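User: Can you predict the 3D structure for this chain?
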Amino acid sequence: MVKSKGKSDITDQVSKFWTDFKVLFSDKLYAVNILGYIAYNFVIGAYSYWGPKAGYATYHMENADLMFGGVAIVCGIFGTLAGGLILDRMNSTISNAFEGPSTVSIHIFGDVPSSPLVGVVQDAVNNWRVTSLILTSVLFISSGLWSIELRKRSQTGTFQ
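Assistant: Here is the predicted structure, written as structure tokens:
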């Protein structure tokens, strides 16, 4: 019987992925940073999906989808420009940017599961104000994790 080359390639790729994953997450500052981004994207992902429905149900906004979309566009443009200016002032380089958070982890554990989970919470409590309060409280988790990272970086002097 001939061994499938495709299957061994996939096994090799999975093995390399887990090796890289272990190396990345052995850096505690990196891991804390990623966990903060996951919590942050969890909230952003859920609000992007459920925000208009919650706005309509809570405040009887006829144009909740237009309002949420407009806010997302304006904040996205402002945030992109402000972030670029801040990084320019920090003398950030492309190599520093690649030391940033793992996009795959952020999406797999952050914004992808957030919408269904918030739907389950809303089905259980049937109150958009309570659901929104619970969801927004997750932002405190991300800010707490980033505070830990900043404190550790200031103690070790690893700001670049």
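The mean pLDDT is 81. The chain is about 85% helix and 0% strand.
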